[in-house]
Specification:
Length: about 425
């Protein structure tokens, strides 16, 4: 693995299926991620059904997502400073208290919007800490040559959890409004039990803590010095703007065509399935295609697929397109994740992942804002064509980038053929 830092303290190679600590971490994180997706859907539903106010529902939903923007950077620094296992345990306990408390409030009919917002923000913050600690811990629990397979399984797990979150949350809400929160609390209990069974250390030696701003700045500076990494993250962040706009355009296409919201759900599921398949095949591509070729090839494929909904608005065709886009995204996430985790020093894992997460999530937020105005001002066809033009520009930038082209040979592969 030419681009991966090898740490002699990491485990010797063996089958991931026999690596109990990795399997426990994989299960634990899957439960936590699924619980987060369930409550992301249910928090607004509870408020809307109780008060009838879409505005108040939006406030609670916003509070659940706000930690992705506000908490990322300090959480990354603290994850690098603290014991990662204890961070995940504390995060599970925090999520358990938040969701359990909301379950009691909803069951007794005492729904107070400020309390729900606080609980949603607490749970969202705990999930941010948890995911940063879990991602940083993976290289400590698997052998370097198995990092690709581990990240592939993790990405597939996250895709499946995202697919299941909305339908499971909605179905449980239809049974009784407090049931989704109890189910999420149970998921966090399972996660907590699994993390408690992990015995191997999840981090190396740590230097004495310094000022939090200094540690955050160190992570940002390290990321900036990695020319290839910062270039690819910038390109992917821009594609997040495109795909957020494409998703909003899909909603408008379906609505204006007299279709139901179920069609949007089916297309989203198709995209999730494509992403899961892409994640599962990520290691296959790593062994055969260089980093630069994955980046350039994926952007070229996207530049061809993105403009199609401007000309063909058949739901089946769009579902196939979203599946294909998701497949490329799944491959990107695995290959990019392996490169970033494999090249980042252990002491900087939390901070580097938090910087990347903030940039990528911020791009999604910007995509929502910009595409909404563009759809109102220019209509669906022009908006989709503009998004396609942006994707073509991104593909051209990748092709012309010296740092990306330098990774297109055999030396740019993450795994030996």
């Amino acid at each position: 693995m030419t681009d991966t830092v090898r740490d002699p303290a990491r485990p010797a190679g063996r089958s991931l299926g026999r690596n109990r600590d990795f399997l426990r971490l994989w299960l634990a994180a899957g439960c936590t991620i699924l619980g987060g997706h369930i409550t992301d859907v249910v928090y607004p539903l509870v408020v809307l059904w109780q008060t009838g106010s879409a505005g108040q529902a939006g406030l609670v939903g916003f509070a659940a997502l706000l930690p992705q923007l506000l908490v990322q950077l300090p959480a990354g620094a603290l994850v690098d400073r603290w014991d990662r296992r204890k961070v995940m345990i504390s995060a599970d306990v925090g999520c358990l208290l938040a969701t359990g408390g909301v379950a009691v409030l909803v069951a007794t009919g005492r729904i107070w919007i400020p309390v729900l917002m606080a609980a949603a923000f607490l749970q969202g913050s705990c999930v941010v800490f948890y995911q940063l600690a879990e991602r940083a811990a993976v290289p400590r629990l698997v052998a370097p040559e198995q990092l690709g397979s581990a990240m592939s399984r993790n990405e597939a797990r996250s895709r499946v959890a995202a697919l299941l979150g909305q339908p499971v949350g909605s179905a449980l809400f239809a049974v009784l409004r407090w049931v989704p929160f109890v189910a999420t609390a149970v998921l966090h209990l399972v996660s907590l039990a699994a993390v408690l069974l992990i015995r191997k250390p999840m981090q190396g030696d740590r230097p004495p803590p310094r000022h939090l701003r200094t540690e955050i700045a160190e992570g940002i500076a390290w990321m900036w010095r990695q020319r290839f990494l910062r270039t690819v993250i910038g390109l992917i962040a821009a594609t997040n703007v495109v795909f957020r706009g494409l998703t909003m355009a899909l909603m408008v296409i379906v609505h204006s065509g007299g279709g139901s919201a179920a069609i949007v759900g089916v297309v989203s599921v198709a995209g999730g399935i494509g992403g899961t398949l892409g994640a599962l095949s990520g290691t296959w591509w790593m062994k055969r295609v260089s980093l630069g070729a994955v980046a350039i090839g994926g952007l070229i494929v996207w530049s061809v697929l993105v403009p199609v909904p401007a000309f063909v608005q058949d739901p089946i065709v769009i579902a196939v397109l979203f599946a294909a886009n998701g497949y490329v995204g799944g491959v990107f996430n695995v290959v990019g994740g392996v490169y970033m985790v494999g090249t980042t020093p252990d002491a900087l894992q939390g901070r580097v992942n938090s910087v990347a997460g903030l940039v990528l999530v911020g791009a999604v937020s910007a995509g929502s804002l910009l595409s909404g105005y563009l759809l109102d001002a220019a209509g669906v066809v022009r908006t989709v064509l503009a998004l396609g033009a942006l994707m073509v520009l991104l593909a051209m930038l990748a092709v012309l980038s010296p740092v990306v082209r330098a990774r297109t040979g055999r030396e740019g592969r993450l795994s030996p053929p």
